[in-house]
Amino acid sequence: MLDQPPIQIDEWAERPHGVEAYGVDVPSLLPLLECSVPVNVRVTGSAELGMDRRARLFHLGVTKATEDRTWLVAISAALWGTDGLLRRPLSGQVSASAIVFWEHLVIVLVLLPWLPSALRALRAAPPQQRFALVVIGAGSSALATVLFTESLRLGDPITPLVLQKLQPVIVILGATVLLGERLRSGYWLYAVPALAGAWLMAFANPFDVRLDAALAALASVAAAALWAMGTVLGRMVSTEIASRDVLVLRFALGLPAASAVVVLSNTGIAVTGDQFGVLVMLALIPGLLSLALYYPGLRMTAASRATLAELAFPLTASVIGVWALGASLSASQWLGLVVVAGSVTTLGLRERSRPSVLSGPAPRTAPDSL
Questions:
Q1: C-alpha–C-alpha distance, residues 155 and 216, integer Å
Q2: What is the DSSP letter of 163?
Q3: Burial class (CB within 10 angstroms; exposed 0-12, middle 13-18, buried 19+) of 350
Q4: Is residue 41 helix, strand or coil?
Q5: Residues 358 and 24 sit within 8 Å (Cβ to Cβ)
Q6: What is the four-CA torsion angle of 300, 302, 307, 313, rounded to 10 degrees?
Q7: Mean pLDDT for the chain overall
């Protein structure tokens, strides 16, 4: 591959006639970079560069698109907010480890046609990338979901969901530590209010901390940290493996980890027919369906509008928690919800306006046909 200058992602939205992009898997990297740009992609000739058929797909012409998909981002975020409606009642009937085991099994069965390609990509990846994928599957998928499910069992149906809005705060910090990205000045002006809002949300009386509420909050924040770590590591492995394969491996590697949690907790996986039906809906609606809508929507939506559309997540979670699940939040908890949502949304708008530069060779991908 010929050396190419760094590509300024944000410029793509500015230039009316587009720019030529070399060595970048645009559809795969845009969602992982949280830098959504409306684009249409066309393949240009690149045989003179000595690239194979798959590599030629990285030699792209990028032009500005006109169609907006903000509504898709909002719908996918609202679907995430329905998680508590399905998971909360189950958590009182089935162990957290069993719920997560069945979730992963259902999703792996749905993704089975793409599993051989993902496994080939895993074998071709260097050891560091394989280790990152194992951490994503075992930690960011299986263990994080067990902790999140347990937090719903211990706490109210709203707080554990809204605390997941802390993920962008943790992602930015994790990218600084693990990927060497520079922390922008003023980051803590948004992070500290978000953490203060999380404290207000976690406890009905922020000056009277109860053990059960503290355990629920700790489990929820730990889940948010593991999911955020998955985002950071996913950003890292995306330079070597296609995003579709990362998604498949996330659940395929998470399934053995979820099975191990079941064995270690000695809880069993037996469920009734009705419970299994709810488990299938939990895996497919706030799980796969929301992702299937989110990434296409993100690629065709300006970053500022996407960030605002994602507020449908805490809004939906709050409405469902109050009206469907009978949750009752104190005045300080509602204030915390507003502070968390406002701080993280403002931080997201600020970070997504940050110029993102990509350089280096094209991502390594499995040689399967497209």
A1: 5
A2: G
A3: middle
A4: strand
A5: yes
A6: -30
A7: 76
Asked whether the beta carbons of 1 and 362 are under 8 A apart, the reply is: yes
Burial class of 66 by CB neighbour count within 10 A (0 to 12, 13 to 18, 19+): exposed
Q: Which residue has the tokens 């194992």?
A: 134
Tokens of 191: 């992070």
Q: Exposed, middle or buried: residue 246 (CB in 10 Å: 0-12, 13-18, 19+)?
A: buried
pLDDT in tens, 77-106: 899 889 999 999 999 899 999 999 999 999
Parallel/antiparallel/unpaired status of strands 39-43 and 19-21: unpaired
By the 10 Å C-beta count (0-12 exposed, 13-18 middle, 19+ buried), 302 is classed as middle
Q: What does the pLDDT read at residue 291?
A: 80
Distance, first Cα to last Cα, the chain: 21
Q: How many CB atoms lie within 10 A of CB 240?
A: 20
Query: Exposed, middle or buried by CB within 10 Å (0-12, 13-18, 19+), for 114?
Result: middle
Q: What is the β-pairing status of strands 357-358 and 60-64?
A: unpaired
Tell me how far apart the alpha carbons of residues 194 and 350 are, in angstroms, rounded to a whole number.
15
Percent residues over pLDDT 90 in the chain? 33
Q: Is 126 exposed, middle or buried (0-12, 13-18, 19+ CB in 10 A)?
A: exposed
> Considering the entire predicted model, what is its pTM?
0.70
- C-alpha 172/C-alpha 364 separation (Å) is 25
Q: Identify residue 333 by its one-letter amino acid code.
A: Q
Tokens of 202: 């976690």
Q: Looking up tokens 């209010």, which residue turns up?
A: 193
